[in-house]
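Predict structure. Chain length: 525.
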Amino acid sequence: MDSGGATQVTTAGGVQIRQTRRLPDFLQSVNLKYVKLGYHYLISNLLTLCFIPLIFVTLIEASQMDLGDLRHLWLHLQYNLVSVIICSAFMVFGFTVYIMSRPRPIYLVDYSCYRAPDHLKAPYNRFLEHSRLTGDFDESSLEFQRKILERSGLGEETYVPEAMHFIPPRPSMAAAREEAEQVMYGALDNLFANTNVKPKNIGILVVNCSLFNPTPSLSAMIVNKYKLRGNIRSFNLGGMGCSAGVIAIDLAKDLLQVHRNTYAVVVSTENITQNWYFGNKKSMLIPNCLFRVGGSAVLLSNKSVDRRRAKYRLVHVVRTHRGADDKAFRCVYQEQDDAGKTGVSLSKDLMAIAGGALKTNITTLGPLVLPISEQLLFFVTLLVKKLLNSSMKPYIPDFKLAFDHFCIHAGGRAVIDELEKNLQLLSIHVEASRMALHRFGNTSSSSIWYELAYIEAKGRMRKGNRVWQIAFGSGFKCNSAVWEALQRVKPSRNGPWEDCIDKYPVKTELPLVTTIFCYNDKKNY
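Prediction complete.
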């Protein structure tokens, strides 16, 4: 071996091969890492460090006081009794106002994710064969769907509704109702069983489903099924896309601030049966390849007694709406194609629009969650860039300092790839999103709960950990919810990963292709 760390190996044929074993120089990156970490700790504890000398001086002064000094202080207070009483009254009044006006803590007692029966699984070959046998798709469309599936990040065990397993498919109103009932009731039955909460005790019900809004509503179906009380506050959110689950949480949170001592149930789902596209427009074929059966039910409480058994506390909800912009408004759009067939069209500008919405959302969320060290670095970088007209890149805050876990909406492999890159996350941070997409597909607004269930099933959720749920939806919207774990969270019974968590993570790496936006209606793909 020479001084450069190289060795010469002689093979059986007498050929000498020079092998280099020089390790990369990590010194600069390691130093930078620890400098940044030390800076973070210094700034985050700056207030405490400033108070330490003050406390130290106060203790020294107090230790030098004798009985005469204490007697003099007592006489001084007696002569100023009126002032003391007035100050005390103001302090008590202010404390009372603070206690009465502060937001009530919202606890997540438990949640449940629906898992469809095995006979509804749709492996790639079966999916493509059924698409061919329907006779609705030409060869170009079939080839396009095959390529989308290969690059989508979906696995072989996702589920499609019962009606889509028939040839020809049977997308009737009755079949759509049956799908909704199976998903919603399946999730709710499991939730009530795990929490031992009686349906009669539910005071608030919020249901969100974008594309299936029958009369009576989905919320009314739940009220009828579980015989909920007559004065329940029920809401049905429609047409709000994959981010509607966070919107429903936000609505339930606001209602729980008003109505004391009650439970709220949030049901998030999407209905595929009547929204399958049977045409040949490429931009409208993509949802067929990505969206799959799924749903969740979440139990929230504002009761103080539930803190002991609750899994999480809701910390923040931040909502961003870009609907005022025409491109953003139409980037996810339900319409009819030239043949009169209805479907949801995805624009090629969707990733750029989603990036703009994300930027606005994290600009609002950042000051609420980031440590002061990250905020100062961002502000200083921005100031230097503005004042000096510098070409330096803007500083991207390190959200890994604010959150321990990330639940990114599993809208597709491209969405997860872009957020991993732009937020500078590690592979473990997006593992839950990739595995939820692989195992269950894009389950719309409920996908973030399958991801949270994955983190719990892996045993990674510790007390005090913070979780960032982020979702995108039509309109165009980007919404975030931040939760704090109140205990070392264990997976609930009959969870979606209960019998398969040991198989994950699986390798889903593919050549980097923009999965959702690779179409061109004038070409095959």
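Summary: The chain has two domains: 71-102, 108-500.
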